[in-house]
Design goal:
This protein is mainly β. Helices cover about 0% and strands about 50% of the residues. It is globular and about 40 Å long. The mean pLDDT is about 95.
Length: about 120
């Protein structure tokens, strides 16, 4: 079982930045593609960003392109989400997930989430 623990959430003003981290333990981290999702109150969980096993490929939801950057450090078993130019509509609980097959619809492990609140 892979354990995923998110951190770095908090309260920030619109236009500000936050950097989320997701630390993994258990199975070999570099064998998994990693993703970030988010869920706003009363809404479904939405995809935000993904990164391939080695970090050479990434893709993003249109709503965050140009503002968010996903990265990973396989020596630290950690995936990051740098969030810039934050908007109130970015307010959500942010989750990381791990998957064996990059860009598939199957996600093997999930973290517990970290709250991000953007004030206007």
């Amino acid at each position: 079982q892979m354990q995923l623990v998110e951190s770095g959430g908090g309260l920030v003003q619109a236009g500000g930045s936050l950097r989320l981290s997701c630390a993994a333990s258990g199975p070999t981290f570099s064998n998994y593609a990693m993703n970030w999702f988010r869920q706003a109150p009363g809404k479904e969980r939405d995809f935000v960003a993904a990164i391939s096993w080695g970090g050479g490929s990434t893709y993003y939801a249109d709503s965050v392109k140009g503002r968010f950057t996903i990265s990973r450090d396989n020596t630290e078993n950690t995936v990051y989400l740098q969030m810039n130019s934050l908007k109130p509509e970015d307010t959500a609980v942010y989750y990381c997930s791990a998957q064996r097959i990059y860009r598939s619809k199957n996600y093997d492990y999930w973290g517990q989430g970290t709250q991000v609140t953007v004030s206007s």
